[in-house]
Amino acid sequence: MSTHARTWAEVDLSAISRNLRTLRDRVPDGTRILAVVKANAYGHGAVPVARHLLGEGMDRFGVNDLGEAVELREGGIEAPVLLLGAIFPEEVEEAVARELIVSVHDADTVERLEAEGARQHRTVTVHLKVDTGLGRLGVPLAAARAVARRIAAAPHLRFEGVYTHFSSSSPYDLTFTRVQHRRFEDLLRELADDGVRPPVRHVANSASIFSALRAGCEWVRPGIALYGLNPVGAVGQDLGLRPALSLRSRVAAVRDLAAGAPVGYNQRWFAQAPTRLATLPIGYHDGFPFALSGTAYALVRGRKVPVVGAISMDCITLDAGIVPDVRVGDVATLIGSEGAHELPAEALAQVARTIPYQITSCLGRRVQRVYSNREEPAVPLAAGAASAAIAAAVARSA
Length: 398
What we know:
Layout: E1 7-12, H1 13-26, E2 32-33, E3 35-36, H2 38-42, H3 46-55, E4 61-63, H4 66-74, E5 81-83, H5 92-97, E6 101-104, H6 107-120, E7 124-131, E8 139-140, H7 141-153, E9 157-163, H8 175-193, E10 200-202, H9 206-209, E11 219-220, E12 245-250, E13 253-257, E14 262-263, E15 269-270, E16 275-280, E17 297-300, E18 303-308, E19 316-319, E20 331-338, E21 341-343, H10 345-351, H11 356-361, E22 368-372, H12 386-396
Helix pairs in contact: 7-8
């Protein structure tokens, strides 16, 4: 990481450890956890997070596609990796060579994997994904039994698991989730009648872990809950999770504005009185949503100040009139806590009319990641002490 960080995400690895313990306490004894680190570990950094989780006893990971799996392998992660998303025909050779676990979404993939396994003299581990109602990926229920029999009969395939994905993120309204769960269990009974009994079954994502519909499955697949965000997006609801990510940026410019002066594209905001403007080098390209224009806040020197004007590609502007001593180089917190204030990602998502998943997973490559591993709960930054403390930490992390 550069010692001249402009905008960065601080990732507290000890928070991820704590969240993992919380999730382990939620599932029955003997249930294995597959840590989902797709989308750059939901913006937290896939390889550093996976390395940390290995030290916490995690022994399997889930990603969306081949590129994400290759990133883990090239980052030294040799643990089993399950491709949850679709695989294209031209990716089969590398997936087999890298000994990845491949999700089967259609009958043609079974034939391609079997042929490639034979060519490379390898046994390919596969999981059958069944579409029980989400309607995105997975073998349709009507075809799942036949595809499962073909997998079981293929000499170069190891039929390790079968799974589905629930369409509802709510642990409270389980009406359709129960329908999907029943369909899945019916299929398992049909497969057992055919003599097909994959040793692993999994249905529970983060939200489902906080409901009761996970019994009888050998694995669960937490994603966003590992990173301390509420999987149902509720603000203020305590599920025992601690956010691992804080987003901060340094003030790049300070200027005084006269009353009536406009700020930003299309003059979306005018100063109502003389004030002081602070500009941060973060914009929608970095993952700070344009929808937050004029609605978000930042913490500067322990004070909560509004984002004003239109968010642009590379910067945002703050009305820092209540912070008259703001200076270039000061640290502004956009997600996280400082002093008595906290800006959770869930609240940002509500204002932007989106979901917390998008807030962290869309943080761009210009947002550098800084990692810490605090054994004790993080202490909120004292008002006015943020700039020097965080800048020093950023420099030490290089």
